[in-house]
Amino acid sequence: MKTSGDRLKALLDECGLTPADFAAQRRVSSQHVNNWFKRGVPLARLDALADLFCVHRRWLRSGEGPKYTHPILRMAPPQPLPELSPTSLSPPQGSMLQLPYQVLHEGELVTVDNHHLTLPAEALRTLSVPEESAICVVMPHSNMAPWIPRDAALAVDLSQTEVFDGETYALRHNGHLRVHSLSHGHNRTLCLHSHNNGNYAVERYTPAQCLTQGLEILGWVFHWSHFRQRRPS
């Protein structure tokens, strides 16, 4: 696949879309789509098409870098089952840690007394999460459902704020808690992705917008858990 047009054609094949169906969906003529195949995807269309197929803009344009923005969404060959570890559902071995439950109050993280999440100390050591940097928050919205349901308990590493494409982070935005998968966009934009992408569009913020809107990465989400809301009947 030498051109962005070749990569677009391959994406249509992966999704089972004909060029005619794709043209109708994008409200353009079939000739437009054929031109994109031959001449490459226009720069003005790259962001929209990258979002549509959940691929990186850079990959669609040049073929460089990772293809997918959401590794969890792509099919992978079955892997052998790992050996049981303290992070599994087997009985934990060794000491346990109590992660303090915190909420955003007037834009600042505040610890709630007598509330905590208990995790094996070995699990944090395996992930290189410093004990003093680990906290618990509650998933505030439904944008990551059903992967992470609303009100799930999240464990967050406050020491890890570097963005790795496709990883999930807790954010402070205008004084409110948000949780999204993140990626780097064009011209240093920060892209916020939701697992529930049918109801939540990708959001992009320039460095200047992040500054003026108080958009800040609090930490990396490395664990979550939740109870079902009701018994089946």
Shape field: elongated
Number of strands: 9
Helix/strand-derived category reads alpha+beta
Strand content: 25-35%
CATH class of the largest domain: Mainly Beta
Helical fraction equals 25-40%
In short:
The protein is of the alpha+beta class and 233 residues long.
List keywords for this structure.
434 Repressor (Amino-terminal Domain); Umud Fragment, subunit A; single chain; alpha+beta; seven-stranded antiparallel beta sheet; 233 residues
Structure description:
With 233 residues, the protein is an alpha+beta fold. It has two domains: 4-68, Orthogonal Bundle (434 Repressor (Amino-terminal Domain)), CATH 1.10.260; 96-225, Umud Fragment, subunit A (Ribbon), CATH 2.10.109.10. It contains seven helices and nine strands, in the order αααααββαββββββαβ. It has helices spanning 4-15, 19-26, 30-39, 43-53, 57-62, 121-126, 207-212, and strands at residues 96-105, 108-120, 134-138, 153-157, 168-173, 176-184, 190-193, 203-205, 216-225. The strands form two sheets. A seven-stranded antiparallel β-sheet has the order 3-4-9-5-6-7-8.
